Amino acid sequence: MKNLYPKGSEWNKWDMHVHTPESILYNEFGDDWDSYVKELFLTAIKENIIAIGITDYYFIDGYKKIKNEYLLNDSKLQQLFEQDEIEKIKQIFVFPNIEFRINKLVIGKEKDMKWNKKVNYHILFSDNLSPDDIEENFISRLQFENEGAGEGASQKLSLTKRNLTELGSRLIEQQPEFKSHNPLQIGLLCASVDDTEIVNLLASQNSKFKGNYLLALPADEDLSLVSWTSQGHLSRKVLFQKSHIVFSSNQGTIEFSLGKRHGSVEKFKEEFGYPKPCLWGSDAHSYGELCKSSAKCLPVNI
Predict the structure, then answer these.
(1) Beta bridge partners of 122
(2) Separation between Cα atoms, residue 70 and residue 78, nearest integer Å
(3) Which of 120, 139, 127 is nearest to 25 (CA)?
């Protein structure tokens, strides 16, 4: 039979989780976009990165700016890069990665309630989708719970910067500790979306997103050491089952996610669904972190 893949396997380096100056919750890049774009792509070339997930919280403003004002703007690229660098940049696959906070909490010790935080959830979109499609048919159709009511009903608002800013302004009035941040930051910090709503919206029969996205679940804990007989069992399991990939470089999580901590892979499938690949990005929020693995995590070994 004819050999369809004469080159065999190819191993390439991706960084699927790189933040931008538009990452409102946490940005150490400053606001000089030319410097950011130059450093991002020169570092990617140096580190032999062939794909970059441009990441921001809840929105895709950073991805839009990079794509429209730089990658699709040859004169701008010529101002910042040499011709051989531009040719290499054109070969890098750039795609949007939206980082959400969902309406599930990771609970810490009762004496340390400041540790309690919402679970992160990432949506990695194909670059085949236009930014307008992602914004108009996905982001703006999501809602966050804005306020409860005594009768049991709750008010929900569309996920827009205006609504988040209004939420933040109200919360700053109620909690003086929030006053060191601007209203949009506080709105983003406190708002959360429903992971079921995310999945249903993306997977609906009429959705143009079908087949053009991946759901990524960051695992900050070692899943092989989690108590799967605790109250959080089903919440963790369902999130894992919904996801296509896991963001982790922890060896225990890697082995668990591949079904190696069960009696057999088949038994793992019966309970947790298909095994998941574990991937790790830089989660860069500053220049020194671009395209580099986090030192606090074990090396990826998959």
Answers:
(1) 99, 216
(2) 10
(3) 120
> What's the rounded Cα separation, in Å, for the pair 71 and 56?
18
Q: 64 with 106: CB under 8 angstroms?
A: no
What's the CATH architecture for 13-142+193-289?
Answer: Alpha-Beta Barrel (3.20)
Residue among 193, 147, 152 at smallest CA distance from 167: 147
For residues 141-168, average pLDDT: 85
Nearest to 171 by CA among 186, 158, 193: 186
Average pLDDT over residues 216-237: 85
Residue 225 pLDDT class (50, 70, 90 cuts) = confident
For the record, the structure tokens of 124 come out as 């990695």
Q: 149 pLDDT exceeds 80?
A: no
Alpha helices in the chain (DSSP H): 33-46, 61-65, 74-80, 83-90, 131-137, 161-174, 183-190, 195-203, 233-242, 251-257, 265-272
Torsion of CA 230, 231, 236, 239, to 10 degrees: 160
> CA-CA distance, 145 to 147, in Å (whole number)?
6
State pTM to two decimals.
0.88
Helices (H) and strands (E) in the chain, counts: 11, 9
How much is the mean pLDDT over the chain?
A: 87
For the residues 10-18, what does the mean pLDDT come to? 89
Phi, psi of 176 (to 5 degrees): -55, -25
Domain ranges of the chain: 13-142+193-289
